[in-house]
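We treat protein structure as text, and this decision shapes the records that our systems exchange. The tokens are whole numbers drawn from a learned vocabulary of local backbone shapes. One such record is reproduced below, unchanged from the form in which we store it:
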Amino acid sequence: MLLLQQLVNSVMLGSVYVTVAVAFTLTIGILNFLNFTIPTLFMLAGMIGWALAERGLPFGLSGPLPWPLALLVAVAVAILASLVVERFTFRYLKARYGDATEHAIPLVSSLGFLLIIENLVRIAYGTDSQRFPGPEANLTVEIGGLFVRLPQIVSLVAVLAIVAALSLLLKRSRIGRGLRAIAENPDAATILGVDVNRIVPVVFVLTGLLCGLAGVLFAINYGEVSPAMGDDVGTKAIAGMVVGGLGSIWGAVAGGLIVGLTETMTINYFGADTVQVAVWGLLLLVLFVRPQGLFGHNAIGKGKL
């Protein structure tokens, strides 16, 4: 029974990594660069949700907001922040320096945004962990002797529903076809009439939405937020993305769950100090055996998503 409980815990933890790993997959799969602001958007949503629920709007414009409303606003802030990143890391630099997707400029500039946003949050709210004022009722239920929190179940269902909807969007919709065309060849997509400047922001909207949802769900499930909360989740999500396969959305789902399972079982049997060794050891093992990941393709940009 203890093992089954640990498996349940692994799935619930893995659902957080899945959401962030899918966000990484979108930018590296379509735009071919690693967006370092993704962990920061995750953290920003959690911290803004806490600040609004605990203190209210800035400058004394309101008292503390109900936590569901605070979290909705937090997700919207994450999306807006993601669009700001798109405007300056991709569109502006591409217009000024040519096809920036072939250079390290977007990667380095996104790293700059990561540091700026994270330090602004530290200045505004301090560096300490904060307790999120979420639902006060005991939301833990027992199912067949296994204990599961209702928000975690909702989170897992929501994550799978979002990933399924995203997969359908990419395969069946006009926007999805445009995104896949950009992923294959941006120049050819432009020649064929795809408006890159209108389609690319969709990637960043989806990225902000995924990170925002992951951040607020983490706040509800674990009841704690901090300016550093994105660091560990971001690295684990990258590991999950690589293990599952670069450019594969469902590979990111599998990779995130595998990393969650690895982390939970390692803590259970060997202690928390060995988690990083286990996760990154697994990553290296997968790369040695199957460099493209479990469900990935041989070439990023070809046959992706």
Remarks:
- The chain has a mean pLDDT of 83.
- Residues 53 and 79 are 19 Å apart (CA to CA).
- The radius of gyration is 19 Å.
